[in-house]
Amino acid sequence: MDCLDPVFSTVTNYILRPTFSVLSPMISAQYHLSHTDLAKILSSFQFSYAVTWLLGGIFLHAVGTRLGLALAVVFWSVVNILTGFASSVFGFAAFRFLLGIGDCREGVTTIELVPLRFCLSVSLSNVNFMRRSAAWRAAIK
Question: In the structure, how many helices (H) and strands (E) does the chain have?
Fold first, then answer.
C-alpha cells in the first residue's frame, strides 16, 4: 500500500465530514427542518462515531489494515453518495449514522497504518499529530 493512501483518505474525510453542517441552513430551509430535527440528524453521527470506535478496531483486526481501509473508504463514499437521496429527518439521520460508522473505521485504520509505515520515532510523532489533529477537528466543530 502506498504511504499516501492514508493521507488522501484522511484529507478527503476532513473535507467531506463537515459538509452537512455547512449546508444545514439550506437543507433545513428546503426540507422545513427545525433546530431539533437538525440536532437529531447531527447527533446520530456523533453517537455512531462514539459507539463504533471499539467495533471499528475489532473489525480492523479481523480483516486486516489494507482491506479495512479499502472497505472503510468504499463504505463511507457510497453512504455519502446515498445521503443525497434522503428527504426526511429519519433518512438524513440514518445516513449520518452510517457515515459515523464509516468515518470511525477510516480513523482507526489510519492510526494503525502510521506505525506500520514509519520507524518507531517517526511513527510516534505521526500518531501524536493524528490524535492532536483529531482533537482540533472536534474542538472546531
Answer: 6, 0
Domain residues of the chain, as ranges? Answer: 5-140
Burial class (CB in 10 A: 0-12, 13-18, 19+), 92: buried
Q: What is the pLDDT of residue 34?
A: 92
Backbone angles phi, psi at 78, to 5 degrees: -65, -45
Question: Closest Cα partner for 104 from 64, 128, 133, 68?
Answer: 68
Percent of the chain exceeding pLDDT 90 equals 16
Q: Phi and psi at residue 54, in whole multiples of 5°?
A: -65, -50
Tell me if 89 sits within 8 A of 41, measured CB to CB. Answer: yes
Query: What is the rounded distance in angstroms from the CA atom of residue 54 to the CA atom of residue 52?
Result: 5
Q: Residue 61 is placed in which grid cell?
A: 483486526
Q: pTM of the full predicted structure?
A: 0.70
Chain centroid, CA 134 distance in Å: 11
Question: DSSP labels for 60-129?
Answer: HHHH-HHHHHHHHHHHHHHHHHHGGG--SHHHHHHHHHHHHHHHHHHHHHHHHHHHHHS-HHHHHHHHHH
